[in-house]
Amino acid sequence: MVKNVERFSVKYVNLLEAKDRIEQYAFLNLKASLGQYSLTDHLSNFRTEIAMDRMLTIVEITPAVDVQTQQGAKLHGLLFSIDTICVIGNDFWKEPLTVIDDTHATEKSIFYDLLTEKAIESFIPIWS
């Protein structure tokens, strides 16, 4: 049914549970300042785009987020979203599984690079 694929993306949205901003930012390898002000000393939202080859990865970080699961549990923490977009053109159908795996590998690499050892030890990410 689909003849041409120009681009596709793989997106993961994670909530890293922690009670306060200091503990939430401690999960990330993040250094940011604006003039003399360390942005991690304040409530700051971040969005950046990381371009690598034909991949564009959008990283969004939002602290102090409250969510409620479908089961009714209330959670508080850092919203950490990673969306990797692959601009593929007409080559997608030549090796679709390879292209999808490459996109997933890029996203996974960035995900783990941005997490501190503390985060990796305390949260065991599950990729499905």
What does this structure look like?
The chain has 128 residues and is an alpha+beta fold. It has one domain (7-122). Helix content is 23%, strand content 39%. The chain has helices at 21-25, 96-114, 117-122, and strands spanning 7-17, 33-34, 37-38, 46-52, 55-68, 74-87. The strands form two sheets. The protein has a four-stranded antiparallel sheet with strand order 1-6-5-4. The longest helix is centred in the C-terminal third of the chain and has 19 residues, at 96-114.
Distance between termini?
26 Å
Strand arrangement, largest sheet? 1-6-5-4
Into which percent range does the helicity of residues fall? 10-25%
Shape: globular
Our Rg estimate from Cα atoms comes to 17 Å
Q: Please outline the major beta sheet.
A: 4 strands, antiparallel
Structural class: alpha+beta
Number of helices: 3
**Extended strand count:** 6
Rounded average pLDDT? 91
Portion of residues in beta strands equals: 35-45%
Number of individual domains? 1
Outline the low-pLDDT stretches: none
Order of helices and strands: EHEEEEEHH
Précis, in short:
This protein has 128 residues and is an alpha+beta fold. The chain has helices spanning 21-25, 96-114, 117-122; strands at residues 7-17, 33-34, 37-38, 46-52, 55-68, 74-87.
Overview features:
128 residues; 4-stranded antiparallel beta sheet; two-stranded antiparallel ribbon; 6 strands; 23% helix; globular
Any chance you could write out the topology, listing elements then pairs?
Layout: E1 7-17, H1 21-25, E2 33-34, E3 37-38, E4 46-52, E5 55-68, E6 74-87, H2 96-114, H3 117-122
Antiparallel strand pairs: 1-6, 2-3, 4-5, 5-6
